[in-house]
Each structure stands twice: as C-alpha cells, then as structure tokens.
Specification:
355 residues; alpha/beta; Aspartate Aminotransferase, domain 2; Aspartate Aminotransferase, domain 1; five-stranded mixed sheet; 17% strand; binds pyridoxal-5'-phosphate
Length: 355
C-alpha cells in the first residue's frame, strides 16, 4: 500500500475495504439495524461520551451546518485560528446566524481566558471551536477552553470540530463538558470518505427542540427519534456503516490509548526531523498537532519536485492550505500510519534534499 501522508482522505486497511463491499441490506432490515446500532454505540468510546452518536451520510462539513441550524436561533461566537474554523464561521453566516468572530493569529492557540472574556455577559447560545486545525497543524486546548466558557457563561453550548483529531488525539467529551463533537470518516478513523459522526449532549438536544428552522436533513431531533429505533429518516451510507463497525473493533483491538500514543510519536518524529533539517514549524511549541505537522518551507525546497520524487516512491504529502498554501507544507500522520512509515518518508526527503 502506497502510504499517503496527507491529512485526509487517508489510506484504508484492506479489511475495511472488504467490509465495505459486503452485500447491501435494506436499511429497514433487522440485520442492518443491529449493525447500525452497534457501530454507533462502539463509536461513543472514541468521543469519551455516554451520550448518543449520530451517523450521517455526508462529510464533516455537513455537520458544521447541522450544528448552527440545530443549536443557534441567532447569536453565537466562532473561535478562529485557521482555515477550517473560518469555514465554520462562513457556514454560520450563510445560514443567517449572527456569528461573532473571535480570531487570533493563526500561529497562536485560542486561549481559555480569551474565550471566557468574549462570552461573558453576551448570552451567546453557542461557541464553536476547532480542536485540531488541519491547516496550521495546531491543537487548541479544548478542555481548558470549555472549562473557561462553562464558568463564564454556563448556558452557552460548546460545539467542537474534531474532524482531524478524533481517534488520533485525546477527546473526553463528557469529562470536558462539551455539547457537540463532530468528525469525518476519512481522517484519523481511517475509513473512506462520506460518513460524518456527531456526539450530542442531552442539554444540546433539549436546546435543539426549541430552535426553529432546523432544516430537515440535518435535523438532530428528527435523527434522534429515528436513532432510538436504530435507523435514519433517509438512507444511511450502508457500506460505510459496515466499515465503521469493523473499524471500531480494529481500534479497540489496538487499544485507544496505544493508538493515541502512536499518533503522538509520529508527530514527535516529524517535529524532531523538521528541527534537525532546518524547517520551521508553523504551530508553537506546546500546541502542536498529534495528527498533522505543518512545516514552514524555510530552506526553500522545490515542492513540486519533492512531491514528484516522493510519488515515484509511492508516497504523497500535502501542500499548505488556505492563506499559507505557498509557504508551508504538511505531513499528515493519522489513521493506519506508523512511526516506521514516517521514518521511511523522512528518509526519502533526506535523499531528495541530498541530491
Ligand atoms: C477535513 C476537515 C474538515 C472538513 O471535513 P469534510 O469531511 O471534508 O467536510 C473540517 N474541519 C477540519 C478540522 C478538517 O480537518
């Protein structure tokens, strides 16, 4: 398998591809309902929640939209220090929400006291935070931010994008007091793209019941009514649900803590290599992502030539994203990849640079 060091879609294990190609079942069949139930049930461990997990036939961005439609009548705060957080803001505005932007320098984390200050006395219905900014390779201190928001504005719901961290970095939704955590299948979960997962707290679901114009496809209240009967209002992504069911068992077999450690070690390997070879790291120390490393192209490596060189060896890396597209590039180290894979990549890099 030619490893892809990109932050999604990532390589998918042959066992998962095989699970996806099993014969279809009608989604109202008892056999499918059992699979749907247990796949979502097992996924709760990844979120660190006792609450419910909804499965959606969409990519993660669909849930950016679902979240603002379900949890916000009008007033919300959006924390931004990267391109995906900015997308959530754009989604909120395009859905007619009155979103206030709390934007900080993209090379800095969102700090708990900044968010506490911004929410105090404002009656925001919700605050959105991206856990792991895939554009900048920065992990925001979500646990601390959530604690600060809860103290400063207890009724504000805390909505978290964990698209590029869930299954690769720690997430304790219940312990951290989060209300909504969304992710996509094609990143750390190492499934094919097309499935989005959302964990929803009880109080968030209660709030949703009071919000008008939630829409239909992403109406979490409607989805919950169906979920309680082990089904969905519309046709689920059946093959992806089979795949999720098997992948949850594979992750449990590896052990979630081993999996998280493997991701951290891949990040440390990439970071140490970058420092030793004259590349800056875009994200500051202490806030670097465990799942994607964003390097500054300090030595001025010819990126198209490097990418071509790597591709000849069956490897892919990612360019920069958004406004830092041309000055940075990214090594995705998530999903099924190992430290040995990362070392193979870095050795090829050295070979290229030595040329
Ligand atoms: C990839 C990504 C998204 C977008 O997810 P899609 O599944 O492509 O819609 C959103 N947020 C973050 C942090 C991401 O990495």
């Amino acid at each position: 398998m030619a490893p892809m060091f990109v932050p999604g879609p990532v390589d998918v294990a042959p066992e998962i591809m095989a699970a996806q190609s099993r014969p279809m079942l009608p989604h109202r069949a008892k056999e499918f309902e059992a699979i749907f139930h247990r796949a979502a049930d097992k996924a709760r461990a990844l979120f660190g929640t006792q609450a419910r997990v909804h499965l959606h036939a969409s990519s993660g961005s669909g849930l950016h939209e679902g979240a603002v439609r379900n949890f916000v009548h009008q007033k919300m705060l959006t924390c931004v220090n990267g391109a995906f957080a900015k997308r959530w803001y754009d989604v909120a505005v395009s859905n007619g929400k009155q979103a206030t932007l709390l934007e900080v320098d993209w090379q800095a984390p969102i700090l708990p006291e900044q968010v506490a200050e911004a929410v105090r006395g404002q009656n925001y219905e919700a605050v959105t935070i991206v856990h792991n900014e895939t554009s900048t390779g920065l992990m925001n201190p979500v646990a601390e931010i959530a604690a600060a928001v809860r103290a400063a504005s207890p009724d504000t719901l805390i909505l978290v994008d964990a698209v590029s961290s869930l299954g690769g970095a720690e997430m304790q939704m219940d312990a951290w007091g989060l209300d909504f955590v969304l992710t996509s299948s094609q990143k750390c979960l190492a499934l094919p793209p097309g499935l989005a997962l959302a964990a929803i707290s009880d109080r968030a679901l209660e709030k949703a019941k009071t919000v008008e114009n939630r829409g239909w496809y992403f109406d979490f209240v409607r989805l919950e009514t169906h979920r309680l009967k082990d089904t969905t209002p519309a046709t689920p992504a059946i093959g992806l649900v089979y795949a999720l069911d098997v992948q949850m068992d594979r992750i449990a077999a590896e052990g979630l803590s081993n999996r998280l450690l493997r991701h951290r070690q891949m990040a440390e390997t990439s970071q140490a290599w970058a420092a030793a070879h004259g590349f800056g790291l875009y994200a500051p120390e202490g806030y670097r992502s465990h799942t994607v490393t964003t390097l500054e192209n300090t030595p001025g490596v010819d990126m198209p030539a490097l990418k071509a060189f790597l591709l000849e060896r069956g490897m892919r890396i990612a360019g920069g994203y958004g406004p830092i597209k041309d000055t940075t590039f990214r090594i995705g180290h998530m999903g099924e990849l190992t430290v040995a894979d990362v070392q193979t990549l870095l050795t090829a890099f050295e070979e290229f640079m030595g040329k």
